[in-house]
Amino acid sequence: MSKLTESIQGLVEPVLIELGYELVDLQYGREGGRYILRLFIDRPEGIGLDDCERVSRAVGDILDREDPIPHSYYLEVSSPGLERPLKKEVDFQRFAGRKIKLRTFAPVEGQRHFQGRLLGYLDGEVHLQLENGRRLTLPMEQVATARLVFELAENEEA
Q: pTM of whole model > 0.90?
């Protein structure tokens, strides 16, 4: 994370927490000739349009006041979606039992992509039960990306 994104996170995260939201991810960069700041927020009840508008106003106010970004940018606030990324230790604990996709920085047993049931997180390690039934334990520092996999509830049909 760059110093700028760390600074932005330091400004917006307390505002989000006060409003009852979790900052899932923060992305900042240039796209199509313009700078975009994206905030992905969540809460147990889920996220709707009103939540995004509320957070956009509150965060916009603090960013306007503190002015950490040296040029004009667009602020986007949205839900992380059904296949939300897992970034923090608490995410791996909270979503234990759910199906995830995980990619490692370097190959583990000859592969970098894994899919299976998240068993949990303990002592710096992510525990998975792969689709073939085998269990895999990975140190958190080896995890490049991880995200939930959308699953229909047993009583729902596709």
A: no
